[in-house]
Structure formats: structure tokens, C-alpha cells
Amino acid sequence: MPEIAAILPLGGRMHAGNGVRLEPLPACERVSLRAGADLLEAVEERLGIELPKKPGAATASDKTTAIWLGPDEWLLIGEPDSDIAGAVDKLAGLAVSAVDISHRNVAIRVSGTKAALALNSGCPLDLSEANFPAGRATRTILAKAEIVLIRTDAGTFHVECWRSFADYMWQYLVDAAKSA
What we know:
180 residues; 19% helix
């Protein structure tokens, strides 16, 4: 069977100006993980990553970030050369759900001195550094779309949105950046 090339919905786009830079991030592996509290220790041992246990928390290992989305729900994001799928295979036999959602999401990096201001134009959270510091992550809304938002450092955010909303999110963020 011939190899199928991934089509990146935001490929080739870039925006910079008015203190905000937008960059589509490369394709990566993503897994939606659901596990009960009684299995967390076994899941962490098999995956080789500590799962965050508090709302708004994220943890990172060598090439994987784990984001707490709910009491029994995490989003695992692996760098393009990570092997989350291989790690997830190690969960066989445990009563957990680990679903590959790599092709569902698209990621956009929003950075610059006015990044938080641009995002706050459509996000109800207070994204000031005092209330949403580096390392914080959550599921929220941006404009009319559900996103997962991660603050990676003082002036940089990682926005995860569904692929079907990628163009809408990009256009929204370009407009927000121009108004920031």
C-alpha cells in the first residue's frame, strides 16, 4: 500500500506583527488517556511519565507532555519523533482507555509581548502571568472553539484545536494579533 503524506491544514502560514507571532506547529503524536485513580501508579510506570494530578497542571518527560483535563482524563502530546504509540501498547491488560487522536488536533504557537492579550480577546480565562503561569495548561474556549491551552513560558502559548477548526482559529488569532 502506498504511503500517505499528511496534509497540514496550516502548512506554510506565518504571522508576525504588533507584538504577536503565530506559527503552526509540526504534526505530533497525541493520545487521549482515561484511567481511574487506582491505576495511576501502573500507568505512570508503564508510560514512563508522571501524570499531573491537579487541575491546570502539566508535566513533561523526555519527549512527552501530559496535561490534566479532568479527574480521570489526560492529553498526552509527544514531540514529532516520540513514540507514544509504543508506550501506549505497554498499557495492554489495564482497564484504561488510550485513544490515538494525533490526526484530530492541530497546534499553533502564539508568542510575543502581546500574546496573552491576543488570546484574551476570545478566552474567558485571566491569562496574566500571575494567574496563568508557565507550565499551566487547561481545556477552555477561544472564540467559539474548544481548545487546550498551555503556557510554555512567560510569552509563549501552545494552542491545541480540532483540525476542523484550524483555519477559523488561525484567522481569529491573526485578527486578534492585529488588534492587540
